[in-house]
Amino acid sequence: MFKPNNDNHSGATHFVVLDCEFLKDLPLYERYRRADPDPARCRWPMKRVVSASVMALEVQGSELTVTAFKSFSGASEDRLLVQLFAFLAERPRHKLCTYGGVATDVPVLRVAAMEHGLKLPLQLRYSDRSRHVHLDLAIAMKGGEGDYAHMSEVATRLRVPCKLAGHAGSVPQLFSRGNFRAIEALSEVDIISTGFILASYLGVQGEILSAKAAQLGIIRYVRPLRGRARYAELLGNVADRLRREINQELNTWMARVA
């Protein structure tokens, strides 16, 4: 486990949960097709970042708490990346956490940084220690060789809210309308879901005492910030369920020890 020694939080573990939304750059793909006599399909090098959401978490004293929640979006990819990289650079000892980020988010961020001449924050640099600064939950929870589960599959099993703001397929239409707030919502609900799964993962690892209490804490932090988002009301319903389940578990435990 990644154990930083910074600020006044000695002994704490820190994470930054990250998710990006992308748009295929079709003119770039056409230029590539003209250059390659046997072109591949439009894959991740042809994608541009149009939104990125991040949530900073701290694990200390068997509790998980949120310390920051931000989104960046816009038609200017380089400007977006400058903001995102600054957020990560301010937290150099935070471990990156994604769901499937090794496959898409991280390589797209790297190639975009190369194109725009930007310095990568520590969490995105490639080295033989990459696995120590990045927890990809899709890899941590995969089945047999190459058998990666979708986040929605794991979320369904764990009763975790997922895709509350829609799906990535709507990004081109939202982008054409200039509705970047709606695109941000897509990445925000994904980092909330990833944060919930991380809480469950840390719970079974013995890193935190209660995954459900941690999940409830995430909702309590996010809802006041995003009260106008369509997904805020749905998160309220999830919070009500979590409170009921926590109370039931507490009552069951008290009955056993009585």
From TrEMBL:
- Give the matching SUPFAM superfamilies: Ribonuclease H-like (SSF53098)
- Per its UniProt record, what InterPro entries does this chain match? 3'-5'_exonuclease_PolB-like (IPR019288), RNaseH-like_sf (IPR012337)
UniProt cross-references to Pfam families, sorted A to Z: DNA_pol_B_exo2 (PF10108)
Residues of the Predicted 3'-5' exonuclease PolB-like domain: 44-211
- State the name under which the record lists this protein: Predicted 3'-5' exonuclease PolB-like domain-containing protein
